[in-house]
Amino acid sequence: MKNLLNTSSIGLLAGALMLASCGNQTKSTSTTDSTSTETTTTVEKPAGLKPTGPAPEWGPTIHPEMQAVIEKLVSYGDKPTESLSAVDARKNHTPTDAVMDLIKENNITLPAPGVDTVGKEIPVAGGNIHLRIYTPKTGKGPFPVIVYYHGGGFVIANIDVYNASAQGLAEQVGAVVVSVAYRLAPEHKFPTAHNDSFAAYEWTVKNAASINGDPKKIAVVGESAGGNLAANVSIMARDKKIMVPLHEVLVYPIAQADMTTKSYTTYAAAHPLNKPMMAWFTEKYVNAMAEAKDPRISLVNANLKGLPSTTIITAEIDPLNNDGMMLADKLKAAGVTVDTKNYDGVTHEFFGMAAVVPEAKEAQAYAADALKKVFGK
């Protein structure tokens, strides 16, 4: 199973779909505006997900379920992403492959998806892009709408790989989710992904009613590169004077170009994202390395005033951990209401792993609660 996964089978990975088992506690640090509180959340853990070896040197605090996923991913023996062309890197196994295999190996039975999906092609400058629209099977529309942007460093992955996040949010929030297949680099250089992302948002604002959505209740969500794109959509909506999203959820977003931060240094060799991969992603997307400091990529340099309330989720074992925290500080300084939560013991890409990683289930619930609040649900 490679990067492009079967949609029907990957659909089983929806965020809320996780076997209930023994209750254990997972600690997460929660920050609202400039105040800080420690919260301890009881999270149901699936049975039987245990690592086979010791914690890796790059992640001594990794939690067992997360380590099991990483062990499975490493077991495929793929060549390092940063050593490959973009075309070949897209053929590597993904964390989603690892989760799917663990589900099979541990005989985890998941309920059927609670959404219907349909594809939609829309025109953008220089071509077309694909949208996947998730609609809840229960409830009565018009539903609130979430425009979702997947990760992959602007270069790899797709809406199939990130299906679990989009589907989980649709089910838990009770919202229509529009997942955006923006064009990838290096075939499409900066700022193509950013412009495609805004075009998809603008299409959604204009056509929400046609997809059983409420045009007055639209939010944006993104992971990693997608977190960067979601924030940029809010900025572009503000600047172009169209409806600004009601809320944005940014999951371990790319937010700045300095690769000497504490988290970049501490987790330089982490999996599934490491420092060499981030340099590779940047080189593939930008036209010249100086563009990495453009405020559209380095969000910490952008004008962040007037943006919607924001939820930022970070992972402890992640080169981008400090990116999210730096962006939160900049947003607060610009007068934006910000809630943040950092999840200990997990790596980049954990958010979509709710079927096997308890912190992911809790993080999706945290994001869903924030979205339901702004949607008045």
TrEMBL record:
Key words, A-Z: Signal
Cellular component, GO annotation: cytosol
Keyword ATP-binding: no
SUPFAM superfamilies per UniProt: alpha/beta-Hydrolases
Gene3D superfamilies in the record: alpha/beta hydrolase
Gene Ontology annotations of biological process type: triglyceride catabolic process
Low complexity bias: start-end ranges: 26-42
Region (Disordered), start-end ranges: 24-61
Signal peptide residue numbers: 1-26
InterPro entries on file: AB_hydrolase_3, AB_hydrolase_fold
One term of GO molecular function: sterol ester esterase activity
Domain Alpha/beta hydrolase fold-3: 146-351
Protein's name according to its UniProt entry: Acetyl esterase/lipase
